[in-house]
Input
Amino acid sequence: MKLLRCPLNGPRNISEFVCWGEVADQPDPATADDLAWTDYLYFSNNTAGVVFEWWCHTPTSYWFIAERHTVSDDVIRTYTMDEFRAIRRDGR
Amino acid sequence: MTTIQPSAYRIRSPVYRRLEAAGAVFAAVGEAVVAANFGDRAGETRTARTLGVVDLSCLPRIGFKGRGAVEWLTAQHVGMPDTPNRAAPQADGARAVRLSASEVLILPDRAGRSGLAADLEGAWQRETLQPRGYLLMRADTHAWFCVTGTAAPAFFAKLCAVDLRADRFGRNAVAQTILAQVGAIIVRGDVGPAPAFDVLADWAAADYLLPVLIDAMAEFGGRLIGLDALAALVADGGT
Amino acid sequence: MSGVNRIPGGLLVDAARPVRFTFEGRAYDGLAGDTIASALAANDVRVLSRSFKYHRPRGIHSMAAWDANALVQLPGEPNVPAERTPIVPGLAVRGQNYRGSLAHDRDAWLGRFARFMPVGFYYRAFFKPHGAWQRFWEPRVRALAGLGAVALDAPHGHFDKVHNFCDVAVIGGGRAGLSAALAAAGAGDQVLLVDHNPVLGGALNYGRAAVERAATHAERDRLVGAVGGVRRITVMTGAVANGYFADHWLAIIQGSRLHRVRAGRVVLATGAIEQPAVFRGNDIPGVMLGSAAQRLIRLYGVRPGRTAVVVAGTDDGYGVALDLLDAGATVSAIVELRPEPSRDPRAVAAAGRNIRIVNDASIIAAEAVDGHLAAIAIRRQGDNTRHGEAIVCDLAAVSVGRLPAYQLALQAGGRLDYDDARAHFSIAGLPPGVTLAGWTAGEDIGANHPWPIYPHPDGKAFVDFDEDLQIDDIENAVAEGYREIELVKRFSTVGMGPSQGRHSALTAARLVAKETGRRVGDVGVTTARPPVVGEKLGVLAGRGFDPERKTAMHHRHLEAGAQMMTAGAWWRPAYYGVLAHRADAIAREVRAVRTAVGMIDVSTLGGLEIRGPDAAEFMNRMYTFTYTKQAVNRLRYVLMVNESGAIIDDGVACRFGDDHFYVTTTTTGSDRVYQTMLWWNAKWRLDVDIANATAAFAGVNIAGPRARDVLAPLVEGCGVDAGAFPYLGAFEARIAGIPARFLRVGFVGELGFEVHVPASQGEALWDALMDTGRGAGLVPFGVEAQRVLRLEKGHIIVGQDTDAMTTPEEADMLWAIAAKKPFFIGKRALVIRDKHLSRRKLVGFAVAGAPPLQESNLVLKGGNAVGFVTSVAWSPTLNRTIGLAYAAREDAAPDRSLVIRLDDGRDVRATVVKLPFYDPDAARQAL
Output
């Protein structure tokens, strides 16, 4: 049973978490055309490689980000929301 | 002397009927009604050293959460743990349990003598300064069971995937995890010489959870015990 | 005397404690510590079962429960491994898979028809004539299928589960495992040492690596003693590690308890599995692995046979021969399969004890009499006779090599590489934290015989004992075109029985390699998946958890005679009364609400606290309606759609302050809505705090024209008349001394007050209201009545009247959308969907009479399904059947006719009715 390191609670069994999929930048709903919006809603890259994902520790309802390799299922790092915003600012 | 009946009080434990069925003798602690014993103080005190469970659901407690909560509590001279998932004992025996960067749970001492929760709630309501976080009704969101005894870590291993062994989960450690398929907050304290684990879990699932705990305890000779047994242990162990 | 074959010295048995048991109805005496197989072997009982396909007699082969040959039946439990299951006084054991008796199986004729059942025959048989399968073959195949019998009335066992934690898990307690455990403990680690056998020591307990045993025993005693003295090492014997899972998570089964172990790292010292030789009759009882003979002698004090032949493809065979001599057996010959004589000291010792050694020989066949071994026919190099030489024997002990026990290693991601020179597989490619030790790592394991395979023109040279597969079957699978081992496995079923390839994988790889002209390493073996050995379903079920949630008033409902129903994990009262009078009870409750007053427990509906300077902005974004201008002490409907514009939840939002909204959700939606809100605000980072207070508030809804009569005497700090408390008002005050929130809502279409109090005081609230309300005729009502009442008002229930696609427009709820808001979740999608309206709309309908309409009955138009019924009920208020349904958009107008298909195939006509059915002026709830 896979272990996932929650930034708040430390390493826990994966059964304590839910994943809400890949972090995707939402286009501006005011300016995006219908095709771009539909693409955002229903299509994902299905990347074979490193992605950032939304994860929630269900007993604490704590949301955080995991950086995971989708082929090896290796979780490289987990980030608090603040840490994630910082690396996003830095262009990652 | 009239016997105390939970159904005569407004605040009732979610499991009071199970306590009654087990032969509880109740006592009033402020507005709360707790099972003082089950007719066997000496035996319950012995059991408490190995494995026992007490229902403390009626004891007053409160939570604070959100922007400004931790700062305001610190300004009220509440001793605050530096990091989440740790508890800090207070002078009057209460504990401040830090659940996240901005959430704190105030638990009274297990005899229910501390007025800290009520005092802080009153002060918060009267306060006008912002931000100071928000109140959480922790006496009603969660039930409170205290599990005591040296066999407690082995017992928890039947219900919980977190390592609660004595050398891995020390005094004032906190685990927020899943216990018997319900979310739970587990706080390690001690009662005299015996290790003690405060379990806070969904109030609505308490009537499901208590029999699960008691069934899992059977293997170790564990059982329901009353508040008197805890007091006796404290008297023995001096905490 | 506990058996004619009993000899002194069995490590596990106690000669002073006989144990009587029965096998096939006959009584036998064993010793405490015997397994079923060893006790029977002591009593010279050779045949334990009948094989799966050909019903051939089978007996002890590995003495380690690696295969199905020794599966027996206990009362109430089939497929019990006789080689590992201890006897207890009175145990009644039977064989399996026979008709009549084990000795005279009436289905043994199947073996004579083997040539009509070649590999994969069932893919081509039984098809013709048409119908023959159902009428003739299937019942017969069913009767023959399976090994043991399930007793439906068997008593339930008690199974449990527990978590375990350690720094190092060492799997296997032989020499390598014991050493690894000591090394890790010495370095400060907490160690869990797991062994399948009743005692530690592994092969040190029964193997004969040297001529004299003393050194082996001393080493065993030293290691086992050292481990016993180290507190950091926890020993689990009689425990099998049955699966390796991610991040060093192990499933370890000991007795009837499943241990779910999280290890910091894992050492696999699982040893090696001795391999069979493949020759005609290699399955006959009496033919067994050399290590099986040694286990019988050393562990159980049983002489495995009287007159033995040892088949030696490796030097270990000579150790077996010495053990057999020491156990009092005659060793007629050692058949050395290799061309050169062995120079191993054990071979020298065997020669020194005058055992005949036949060098450079091959096996022709084993012969049986009365179902067990009577002779082995061998061929010496240069002997060209047809029958070779027959050696009389009742035991053939075979030592041709070992395969590392690779199962857990492959589950951990390892792979098998083949070494042609030593003719064995080795394990590589393990992830960090998983290491091998001892024989599993290939240390000291010796070379295997490269080809102990001897085909015979009359067949019956078994590659897989469990599946009754012979050499021909593997060759025929390849001839059919299945060249890859994965396909050979699936076509032939080799390795798919209880032994899971332990004895067949190496042979199958060799045969396929030969038939396809490839190297054994290029053919490989199929992967290993959990479980390693069979595990009982009871162990997996174990201690199960099935959480239930109850409101504070739960017991009052039971006491009032409620039939309870589940809503997610919650229990709610469906109606109050007996099942036989369900319809009457519901109608009575509906009438009570419409004419007097009723009370329903609404504690399960979610309660979320939205607090902070950005609370109104947050509400505006989460829901379709607008909240910026909502007044304090007023409530408003909330409707939530997802990003695709589909309705997912609803409720009401009470504003108790500029910066404070208290929002309700549906019962089954509360956790999901809370999680969704947190997720969105993790992105938006508005200055708002979201808290889930669902469990904290118990709540009731008091509805009916006499509602005020019930509340007025109890409410403090707030008036309940229409002036003080208008429709859609929301106030915080007290009731019967309990702090409370009061809401005026209109879900059921009558004057209604919801009262929310702290859960711990919910039962006290219920008691006070029932007491005070008696005079006004207050009765409790349940979910069923509430569903009828809201249906009469045409109010939807999210998840019942909406599906995954329903937009607010389809449900005529455009009034709940604040179109001028710049943003709410789902707005952009609704703009797109408005350009392509769906073909359906949700409408109200009524039918004459009381036809058996059900939810999900289809609405038809022109022979096609254009919609379906979402809600339907008999309305006591209106005295007719009403409902909600999706209908074709062009039929969504009052008085249009709908056709609805009943479950029994009849069609009924329904008339579209403008909603609401009851009180269209909405006067009643605004009283």
